[in-house]
Amino acid sequence: MGGRATIAVFPGDGIGPEVTAEAVAVLETVAPRHGLALDFSVGTIGGAAIDAAGDPLPAAELERARRADAVLLGAVGGPKWDDPGARVRPEQALLGLRQGLGLYANLRPVWTVPELMAASPLRREVLDGVDLVVVRELTGGIYFGRPSERRTTPAGREAVDTLAYTEAEIARLLHAAFTLARQRRRKLTSVDKANILSSSRLWREIAHEIRRDYPDVAYEDVLVDAMAMHLIRRPRDFDVIATENLFGDILTDEASMLAGSMGMLPSASLAGAPAPGERCRGLYEPIHGSAPDIAGQDRANPLATILSAAMLCRYSLAGGGGGDRARGGDGGGGGRANGRPGGARRAGGWVPGDGGARARAAVDVPNLRKGCQSSRLNRGTSTSLRRSSTILSRSGSVCALGAVAGVKKPRGVLTRRTKSLSLSFPIVDLLASWSMRIRAELHKTSPDLQ
Ligand SMILES: NC(=O)c1ccc[n+]([C@@H]2O[C@H](COP(=O)([O-])OP(=O)(O)OC[C@H]3O[C@@H](n4cnc5c(N)ncnc54)[C@H](O)[C@@H]3O)[C@@H](O)[C@H]2O)c1
Predict the structure, then answer these.
(1) Which helix (H) or strand (E) holds 161?
(2) How far does the centroid of ligand 1 lie from the alpha carbon of residue 291, in Å?
(3) Is the CB of 95 under 6 A from ligand 1?
(4) Could you give the CA distance from residue 87 to residue 379 in angstroms, rounded to a whole number?
(5) CA 96, CA 78: separation in Å to the nearest integer?
(6) 358-388 pLDDT, tens per residue?
(7) Residue 223 · residue 165 · CB < 8 Å
(8) Which residue of 53, 196, 329, 375 is 20 to 30 Å from 368, comparing CA positions?
(9) pTM to 2 decimals?
(10) Helices H / strands E in the chain, number of each
(11) How far is CA 347 from CA 267, 314, 350, 427, in A?
């Protein structure tokens, strides 16, 4: 990869600073091994910025984001700023960044890992092999339409919101979704409410025009109410799901329950299509909120943010491609893809245009053992998870991360007897697999962990 890149980091409120610190530590460890110098430009947004400057997204912070190659964000908000009548609210920072950076395509990958299926309210046979991405339109629709207001009429109070989409907004989102589908299982489900809404009828019309450009991608239309049902009845059948802002907001939260927890799912918001070989400006954040109930207690699970950092590497630094490989499951070395034995592997990319170059490394066993033993993953507390990620990312380096991805847990302790090990993982898979495994281990002993 090589070169230099600037990452704007907005830790935000609550547990935001705790989880972003872990993700930054991982990036700091990984980047030099690929000849990349990362500059982290840390800013203040959300509730903290309201306290400091009276503005959740000061102009200088938006400028910081604009100047960066990518943005890593924790979460914003908390009870201190929750007054619904308040003129300024932390969430305005998120909307301002999305609009200001033109981040129109929100990617939320959801997959299941066998070790965590018990955490989902759904049955194992429904969950097995689920691997989908929701591509949600992020800067249009009812969240941005005008008028949006309350008014008083002779008949009483009334309120109005406006759901409006232009042809261009719909087309670019669908192109992004088709582009992603081509790097995955080549199946796209477009979700709308075309039987009722004019905006959805336009959506469907444009989708049918665009699908002609992607004859190799299987396409289907599904109404949003039916989709809510199919997502929990037959989630395995879906690959890429494209939909507008409001429907996507609701469906992604529903889909997150397939994975058993919101505390481990990443997201990317992109200003372009995730095309192979092309870097894309993006903002990366966990899908969970600021968790004020556990803030400052050293209990926050950083994995969703670490996985978001992995997506950042893929789409904004490495030049896209490889679908949504910031995920767990297959660690990259076996013959499984998408949770299915014998499936064709998608190309993984770290170096631009490398077509799936592998990071080869020898494991630094003393460092690994030190990291594993001192972090005491077997104790199964949320605190140990945070510590272990810090220790492994700082001392054990990427090699140790890869080794952990392959470690089995005898009696709950992560140890490795082999003196050295040669790994061949795409780097992003490696991070993802490592994260999932640790998360799975901890869930067994600490089921209350989100
Ligand atoms: N993108 C964002 O910044 C974002 C998203 C959602 C909510 N919020 C804000 O966050 C605040 C809290 O919202 P909420 O409670 O509805 O949702 P939340 O996601 O913050 O928390 C829900 C539950 O999950 C737990 N949790 C969340 N992330 C966790 C993690 N990484 N590790 C361990 N446990 C975790 C929390 O402790 C809580 O019990 C609100 O002010 C809300 O507006 C921000």
Answers:
(1) strand 156-162
(2) 4
(3) no
(4) 45
(5) 18
(6) 222 222 323 333 333 333 332 333 343 444 4
(7) no
(8) 329
(9) 0.78
(10) 14, 16
(11) 20, 12, 10, 12
